[in-house]
Amino acid sequence: MFKPLMFALAGLGLSSLAQASPLVEGQHYEVLPQPVETRVADGQIEVIEAFWYGCPHCYNLQEPITAWYATLDDDVSVEHLPGTMGGDWNKHAAAFYAAEELGILEAVHADFFDAIHQQNRRLTEADDIAAFYSDYGVSEEEARQALGSFAVKSKVNQAHARLRDMRLMGVPAIVVDGRYLVTPSSAGSLANMPQIADALIAKVREERED
After folding, report:
1. pLDDT given at position 210
2. Inside any domain, residue 202
3. In whole angstroms, how large is the CA radius of gyration of the chain?
4. pLDDT of residue 84 exceeding 90
5. 162 and 32 in contact (C-beta within 8 Å)?
């Protein structure tokens, strides 16, 4: 049986969706077959954004989802989780975690997307990624070492395990509290994904108060 998510949606930008009906499980969002362990402090609500740098839909989601992140309360913790479906996916996942290890992720994340989708740069080879990262205060050698490091390889493997546990079949996707899945298909559009996730955060808060 579908379970309606009864939260006020005024002001969330859902427009026609909000006017038509409340959010409904199986129609606007899915419940994962098995909840996955969250990795946040007590009292926090985990939001995972699964993405691939090479995905045009993930790129187009960046503007609305970044604006949404800026509105989140302090009890919400956001994690970016790169897709690991082999090939260029794994190379980009390594690039993501290498930037994290180098301390340049916040500066480079949006630019990495732009380089691929605006400048037609593949950024899949270690030398190309290292050269790109050298514009952010690290040397090419430091970047190459990070890309090939045990720590980065371990994080890519851990990301793959988490994605497998979530049984995600594609990106972009948002997972709220290790249970609720929002996709472009379920949301009706990329722009609706953050708003539906926002309502699911409100649902989690209400569940915890019961």
Report:
1. 79
2. no
3. 18
4. yes
5. no
Domain count, the chain: 2
Residue 199 domain flag: no
Whether residue 92 is found in the same domain as residue 10: no
Cis, bond preceding 172 (omega within 30 deg of 0): yes
Where is pLDDT greater, at 93 or 10?
93
Whether residue 205 lies inside any domain: the answer is no
Task: Please count the other Cβ atoms lying within 10 Å of the Cβ belonging to residue 46.
Answer: 21
Cα(62)–Cα(188) distance, integer angstroms: 17
Instruction: Output DSSP code: residue 134.
Output: G
The per-residue b/e assignment along 1-18, b for 16 or more CB within 10 angstroms, e otherwise, is eeeebebebeebebeebb
20 and 79 both lie in a single domain: no
Question: What is the model's pLDDT at position 23?
Answer: 81
Instruction: Round to whole Å and give the CA distance between 48 and 28.
Output: 17
Phi, psi for 95 (deg, rounded to 5): -60, -40
Gap between the Cα atoms of 129 and 152, Å rounded: 14
165-202 per-position pLDDT tens digit: 999 989 999 999 999 999 999 999 999 999 999 999 99
pTM of the model: 0.89
- Same-domain status, 17 and 44: no
Q: Which domain holds residue 17?
A: 1-30
